[in-house]
Amino acid sequence: MEWITFAIAVAGFLMSLASWIRSLWIERKNLIVSMDFESQYKESFLSSLYLNAVIAFTFENKSSNSIAVTFIEIQTTSGEKYRANLTPGYVAHKWHNEIDPGVSTYERFVESAAFPVNVCPFGAAYEYIIFSLPKDREWNDLNQIIIHTNRGPILIE
Q1: 151 contacts 29 by C-beta, under 8 angstroms
Q2: Which of 11, 13, 61, 151 lies in disulfide reach of 29, CB 3.0 to 4.6 Å?
Q3: 122 phi and psi angles, rounded to 5 deg
Q4: Is the dihedral of CA 77, 150, 57, 154 positive or negative?
Q5: What is d(CA 111, CA 54) in angstroms, rounded to the nearest whole number?
């Protein structure tokens, strides 16, 4: 009889341990970030020395906890960092055609992300992010992108 009690206790312990490990695995920080580098470049409204680079980011949260992207930085090989604009800015106009294909009507403004970008559990967000970069900055000089979240930074080489 004692061995049956012991076997049930061991089975219960192993099931509890498996449940705990599964819970930790699902709740870990698991944010997948992809970028669309077909960026739009526009002269900055503030200065002729800066260029506004618009990059489309897709944030995919594969964990059971929500993740908030607080800000994004681009770092160069020399260590300089350029932070994304934290307030929404103009990206483009959205147009659609009427019955006549030659006539387009204005539908709405497309704006960049307002930070923090909240990504719900097992959800995704598609946001435009604006970086103000000096005009003389080359894209191949950029080393990595640092995405700061409420659950720790994510580095993208």
Answers
A1: yes
A2: 151
A3: 55, 30
A4: positive
A5: 10
From the CA atom positions of the chain, what is the Rg in Å?
Answer: 23
pLDDT at 67: 92
pLDDT at 73 (0 to 100):
93
pTM over 0.85: no
Q: What DSSP assignment string belongs to the chain?
A: -HHHHHHHHHHHHHHHHHHHHHHHHHHS--EEEEEEEEEEEEE-SS-TTEEEEEEEEEEEE-SSS-EEEEEEEEEETTS-EEEBPSS--EEEEEEEE-SSTT-EEEEEEEE-PPSSEEE-TT-EEEEEEEEEEETT--GGGEEEEEEEETTEEEEE-
End-to-end CA distance of the chain: 60
Per-residue pLDDT of 13-54, as tens digits, reads 999 988 888 887 777 788 899 888 665 656 555 556 677 788
Q: b/e for 5-40, b at 16 or more Cβ within 10 A? A: eeeeeeeeeeeeeeeeeeeeeeeeebbeeeeeeebe
